[in-house]
Amino acid sequence: MAFGLRRKDLQEWKRKIDRGEIAFLTHYWLDDRFPDCKTVTKVGCSDLKKLISWGETYGLKPEWIDYRKDGYSHFDLIGTRQKEILEKEKLRKHLERLI
After folding, report:
1. If I label 74, which of 25, 27, 36, 67 is the partner at 20 to 30 A Cα–Cα?
2. SS3 44
3. What angle do CA 95, 53, 35 make, to 5 degrees?
């Protein structure tokens, strides 16, 4: 279940994806499969080759992409990998949501 997601942030994430940029969206999230995780970061791009290449730099596999017909395909980052990637990408605002 997603929550704490602002419409403005979601719209900006979609605009960046539509422009072919690598876009990040971090929000609070609860899933019984991952009881220790309270947030998720969605990393998307309309250019799937670019998204796959970006993911490969962090050891993410193309089959882990949530392929969406609406054009907003993305990786879901959770847990320690989420934190590591956000730190490497220097995304301080997103890291603050992990606290």
Report:
1. 36
2. strand
3. 40
Q: In what order do the strands lie in the sheet with 39-44?
A: 2-3, 23-29, 39-44, 74-77
Chain position carrying tokens 């990393």: 43
Task: Write down the domain spans for the chain.
Answer: 2-96
Which residue is it, tokens 């959770």? 78
For 40, other C-beta atoms within 10 Å of its C-beta total 20
**CA geometry: angle at 3 spanning 10 and 57, to 5°?**
60
